Amino acid sequence: MIKSKDTAITYLIADLHLCENRPDISACFLRFLENDAVKAEKLYILGDLFEAWVGDDDDNPYLKTIADALTKLSQTGTKIYYIHGNRDFLLGKTYAKKSSMTLLPEVETIDLYGRHVVIMHGDTLCTRDIDYQVFRKKSRSWWWQTAVKSLPLFVRKKMAANYRKRSAAATAIKSQDIMDVTDSEVTACLEQYQSQLLIHGHTHRPAVHEIIANGKSAQRIVLGDWYEQGAWLKVTPDAIELLNQPLNQ
Asked: 57, 82, 202, 239: which has the highest count of C-beta atoms within 10 A?
C-alpha cells in the first residue's frame, strides 16, 4: 500500500560496500530503509552500494535480500534512484528492475526543494589519482565490459576478489591528497551545470565544504561511508543534515 508522505524528505547515501561478511552494515542498512527511508519521498544511492558487482546473473541469495528490501521500500511510495560507483559499475538494468531502482547517468542534476543540485559518485573528481583514472576509462568501455561479462561467473568473482586486494594495497601507499578531489574539477563541474551545490561520495570524508563557483558562494557536500556507522544526508525544504548512526543501534 502506498503511503501518504507527511513531510517532504529526501535521503542521499553512498559507499555502503554491502557484502555478506559485514552483516552489521547490512543490518544497519535494512533498519535505515525500514525506519528512515520509508518516511522519504526519494532515496538517492550515489554509488558503491555493494563492495563488488560481478554481473546481474549472480544468483547469491544475499543480493536478493537487498533487492527485496529496496522493492519493499519502493512499494510504500519512496522513489529510489541509483548512480554507479567505482565498485559496482557493472550493476545493470536487470538488478535495478529487481530492486525497483531507477538508473541515473554518472552525473545528474536534480531539484531538491528549490535547490538546483549536482549529484554524482565522485570518483571522476579525483583526477590526481592517475592510475585509477586510467583503469576507470578502460573499465567503462563497452568492449571491456562485454569481455568481462562473457566470462564464467566464478572467474568474474575471482577477478573481483583479486582487484579488491590490489586496490587495497595501492590505496595503502597513496597519499590522502592524491585520493581526494581536485578543487578545480569541483569548480568546473558546478560551473558546467550552473549549480551552487554538489553532493557526492567516494572519498569517505563526510563534510560540508564552502567554496566559490560561478562567481559566488557554493557548497560541496561529501557523504560518509558505512564502514564504522550508518551515514546519510537528510534534505528537507528547510535544512540539509549529515547524519550518522552506530551500526549496532
From this structure: 202
Query: Chain-centre distance of CA 105, in angstroms?
Result: 12
Residues of the domain holding 54: 10-246
pLDDT tens track for 34-89: 999 999 999 999 999 999 999 999 999 999 999 999 999 999 999 999 999 999 99
109, part of any domain: yes
The answer as to whether 15 is a domain residue is: yes
Binding-site members are 15, 17, 48, 86-87, 121, 129, 167, 171, 174, 202, 204
> Which pLDDT score is estimated for 158?
93
5 within domain boundaries:
no
Binding-site residues for Mn(2+): 15, 17, 48, 86, 121, 202, 204
pLDDT for 171-208, tens place per residue? 665 667 778 999 999 999 999 999 999 999 999 999 99
Q: Does some domain include residue 169?
A: yes
How many folded domains does the chain comprise? 1
Q: How far apart are CA 59 and CA 153, in angstroms?
A: 10
Give the CATH number for residue 49.
3.60.21.10
pLDDT band per the 50, 70, 90 thresholds, residue 1: very low
